[in-house]
Specification:
There is one protein chain. The chain has about 80 residues and is mainly α. Helix content is about 25%, strand content about 0%.
Length: about 80
């Protein structure tokens, strides 16, 4: 195989069945694609946000309400179990 994405399959394998779950686009630039169609289960951890900036702002506000240390504060850290 000269190209990384090439694959060899035996003659008894029907490639139309093997690659049935793949979807093609007629036009890559303007084609419509449903990003949630037939995704594997391990893609469940991917999120889409209507407004990422609003989600980020909300997360920062919640963090500030629960935080014990705020920006601008001095903190003293003591490390144990580390030899000098």
């Amino acid at each position: 195989m000269d190209i990384d994405d090439e694959a060899d399959y035996p003659n008894d394998v029907l490639l139309s069945e093997k690659f049935l779950h793949y979807q093609g686009l007629k036009n890559l630039k303007d084609g419509q694609w449903n990003p949630r169609a037939n995704l594997p289960d391990y893609y469940n951890h991917i999120f889409t946000y209507a407004s990422f900036q609003q989600t980020q702002k909300t997360a920062h506000q919640q963090n500030q309400q629960q935080a014990l240390v705020y920006p601008g504060m001095y903190v003293r850290l003591t490390l144990k179990g580390i030899s000098p």
